[in-house]
Automatic annotation (TrEMBL):
CDD domains: GH18_chitolectin_chitotriosidase (cd02872). It holds the Pfam family Glyco_hydro_18. Residues 25-396 form the GH18 domain. This is chitinase. Keywords: Carbohydrate metabolism, Chitin degradation, Chitin-binding, Disulfide bond, Glycosidase, Hydrolase, Membrane, Polysaccharide degradation, Signal, Transmembrane, Transmembrane helix. GO terms for cellular component: extracellular region. Belongs to the glycosyl hydrolase 18 family. Chitinase class II subfamily. One of its GO terms (biological process) is chitin catabolic process. It catalyses: Random endo-hydrolysis of N-acetyl-beta-D-glucosaminide (1->4)-beta-linkages in chitin and chitodextrins. Its EC number is 3.2.1.14. GO terms for molecular function: chitin binding; endochitinase activity. The chain crosses the membrane at residues 442-463. The lineage of its organism: Eukaryota, Metazoa, Ecdysozoa, Arthropoda, Crustacea. The keyword Nucleus does not apply.
Amino acid sequence: MIGYVTSLLALLAISIGGVASQHQQEVVCYLGSWAVYRPGVGKFSIENIDPTLCTTLIYAFVGLNETTNTIKSLDPEYDINKKALERFVNMKSLNPRLKVLVAVGGWTEGSTKYSVMSSAASSRKTFIESVVAFLKKHRFDGLDLDWEYPANRGGVPADKENFVSLVKELHREFEKHDWMLTAALGAGKSTVDSAYDIEKLAKYLDFLHIMAYDYHGKWDGRTGHNAPLYAREDETDDEKTLNVDATIKMYLDSGAPANKLVLGVGLYGRTFLLTDPNNPGISAPANTASAFAGPYTREDGFLGYNEICEKQTMEAGAWQIVWQRSHQVPYMFRDNMWVGYDDDISITVKVTYAQKLGLAGIMVWSIDTDDFTGDCSPKKIKYPLLRAINHGLSTHSDKRPHPSLDEDDLTVVDLDVDNDLDDNRYNTDDTRTSRVGGDGGGTVSVTPTLLSILLAFIFTAVLSH
């Protein structure tokens, strides 16, 4: 009887909110497990996950014991004693399509110990044996490698080939268990060139999760968007490599099959403190020493989307919201505070871009910074960004290209086909050689009905040629 009821609940969940079942692409959802320690409504527990909005859930992170070269929990009290890993894996009962992976590495883990572990066949073997035991014990469906980054941050040039060896040997072992093997890979050209043999990695990985964000931040000393889709014409040649389109084209040109590339989007923004509040545009001078943090994530230079939409809701009218046409993304500012972020509209553009190129799907970092409570929605709709991703993937999914792409398929995806956005949510920033042209408009809120009509029109216009 319990099993029967569970099955009915699963079917009900999928029929109501399981939009990931309405398309064939990947929706890869990372969870930053430390989100459970955030204060107030920012606290994110395993039970806050809606597994019907994802095809793959990834628990981040576990680490590497540098003495024994074995995989280890980074938070045994939460992971094991409070059964976070077990509760995470049990999400599969609510979505029969769902795969559940664990990610090893991350920024805080560094690079050096992964460099040492991968340098010898014996230590790689020890690591792989520990991974197999860990996955079996905790019933995961596979492993995600988040080494940030081979041959960088204390690594050595040989890491590039040693990483391939590690992936190849993991792949060989995982085939015996029908497990998935994926990797989160960097976006910057200098990192990619030094760290990855893309063609060889693609041969052994099921999917390559491209971290197409963090292109700009307070470290630049001037405002810049976290994840611009395209370059601006006034940028330098080096700057024109710092955008999603340049990154994806680089991976494709380096031998990665489109159907193995998963485009990463950040459900957060990068913050800045303007040097001059009267100059709040893109590439405006900003403080390099500090920016500002949110009440939940509490990281200088970073705001989760839940913190961004809360500011827009609770401080309505105080923030100027601007659509940067060349980059096809929004930013907002108030006094000397500036944030470049993605919202449902810009994410829809990126999903459309991924569909046109025939990519495998979309990855998000991370679900715990979406509006998972629905507090920013008048109708308390949870996970607006994840829902926008799934809606975008299911809309016109039959328009995806054939496996071989012609040059004509690589056209620019531009949401503002007729300057529709000028009269809705945003002011417009066309001072930096816009792709479309037209004058700026107001900041009237767009209604859900109008937004649906607008998106339907946009998708038809963008994908029909």
